[in-house]
Amino acid sequence: MQMLSLHSVAYCYSAPSTKALRFSATKAPSRVSRNLRARCFSSGDKKQEPISNFGGVQLEEAVDVKAAPAAGGKLRLDSWISSRIAGISRARVQSSIRSGLVSVNGHVVNKVSHNVKAGDKVNCTISELQPLRAEPEDIPLDIVYEDDHVLVVNKAAHMVVHPAPGNATGTLVNGILHHCSLPTEAFSYREVISDAEDISDDEGLCSSVSEASVRPGIVHRLDKGTSGLLVVAKSRQDEHSHAHLSEQFKLHTIQRVYISLTSGVPSLTSGRVEVPIGRDPNNRIRMTAVPGPSKHGQARHAASRYKVIEVLVAGGSALVEWRLETGRTHQIRAHAKYLGIPLLGDEVYGGTKNMAMSLLQPRISPSCHGELLKLVSQLERPCLHAFALGFTHPHTGDKLQFSCPPPPDFADILSQLRKIGREKPKFKE
Fold first, then answer.
1. Residue 29's closest CA among 125, 119, 126, 124?
2. Where does the record place the RNA-binding S4 domain (predicted)?
3. Alpha carbon distances (Å) from 305 to 24, 191, 257, 299, 332
């Protein structure tokens, strides 16, 4: 299988061998109850146990003085409840609030951003998970490769891979069901997906989806804002294809290459980042790199290799290649932030428009500031693209390799940055 060329970014990809990828206080009074097992965060908890379903969990607690912000600050109701029930997602809490299942001082509150203060008495019941139905939808898909067993899709930015609470339609799965003429599928995700993993993974495995999961067989995911290549087993009924592809991801023999535009340039033009990644305790929609030994339940081993391909705008930005050794949630975005080079357009991880302007503006002529502001204002997602993908075909055993240029939004920004200034990085001998 010949690899596609990436003319639009004039960037050459060399597929690595499979072998090369194998690298070595005082507590506030509270009550949490439910039919199954639940845990509530408290200052005395040392280890949190995952639960299988939060439906029916009840929380009765007064807002602790220590939990409330200082004078002038605000504490959102959804944020506070999320911090009090171990492992639950804010999206699940918000759904419960909107369903009228939360009261503050005896009054039902259905506004998720309602502010609470010290001493407020909160009563919350977590809503039951509702089964999702994946309906076939006629959604345009960019099919890079297809045979009887697998699909390779160039996922568009802003497209969610699979249905989930809040994203039941318009997903890649909905489009593939229509493309493959598969029937409507009813399914429910285990809580590890719908609550503990409410952030779509960058190359995250989907092995934790229940047996009654969606067809086709999604074996890995890309974050909603990430564009690029993704392989799919066409039907869950083809157990061999699904299992074979899943095993390749588990063994890290899948070849995965991403390209990104960063805010600034890393101090070293190439390197390996081996820093565990866990959920940010202060922001559940964000992951964070946690230096030091990974601790069970808090952070997981994560390793990424990066290489600067081009230095742009005199060091204000860079075109960086990433090769993943592991597949953690938001791995590249978290590691980029750890290196001090958050991705352009990544508002969650620090690659804000203001940061972009502060790095780029001093490096260009004042006459270009207006054009630069217009360029930066167009950033609507993290500039991250899954550029290359290689795997072994589950039935033929053939080694398949694919690459796909970034979409216009990424390519246009790269082109404009190149016009302002570009240079090749200097690698140490």
1. 119
2. 75-140
3. 13, 31, 10, 19, 10
CA dihedral angle for residue 223, residue 228, residue 234, residue 238, rounded to 10 degrees: -70
In the residue annotation, 195 being an active-site residue is answered as no
Domain boundaries, the chain: 30-125, 132-251, 256-423
Is-contact 176 151, C-beta < 8 A? yes
Residues 6+ apart with CB under 8 A from 128: 55, 56
Residue 343 has pLDDT above 70, yes or no: yes
Residue 53's identity, in one-letter code, is N
DSSP class of residue 8?
Answer: G
Question: Does 228 score more than 90 pLDDT?
Answer: yes
Q: Residues 201, 223, 238, 346: which is the catalytic one?
A: 223
pLDDT range class, residue 23, cuts 50, 70, 90: very low
- For 30-125, CATH number out of 3.10.290.10, 3.40.309.10, 3.40.1390.10, 3.30.420.60 equals 3.10.290.10
For residue 195, CA distances in Å to 82, 88, 198, 344 come to 11, 5, 5, 28
Q: Say how far apart CA 175 and CA 338 lie, in whole Å.
A: 35
The rounded Cα 314 to chain-centroid distance in angstroms is 30
Check residue 35 and give its pLDDT. Answer: 38
How many C-beta neighbours within 10 Å does residue 252 have?
17
> Which single residue is written with the structure tokens 């092995």?
207
Q: Which two tokens stand for residue 343?
A: 């991705």
**Interacting residues of 396 by C-beta distance below 8 A, sequence separation 6+:** none
For residue 191, what is the enclosing H or E element? helix 191-194
Q: pLDDT tens-digit profile of 351-393?
A: 999 999 999 999 988 888 888 888 888 899 999 999 999 999 9
What pLDDT score was predicted for residue 8?
Answer: 43
Phi, psi of 375 (to 5 degrees): -65, -50
With beta carbons less than 8 A apart as the criterion, state whether 270 and 307 touch.
yes
pLDDT of residue 235: 73
Beta-carbon-side half-sphere exposure of residue 301 (alpha carbons within 13 Å): 4
Tell the burial category of 309 from Cβ atoms under 10 Å away from its Cβ (0-12, 13-18, 19+).
Answer: buried
Q: Which of 13, 9, 8, 5 is nearest to 319 (CA)?
A: 9
Q: What is the pLDDT of residue 115?
A: 92
CATH number of 256-423: 3.30.2350.10
**pLDDT computed for residue 34 by the predictor:** 46
Mean pLDDT of 102-111: 94
Half-sphere exposure of 182 (CA within 13 A, CB side): 21
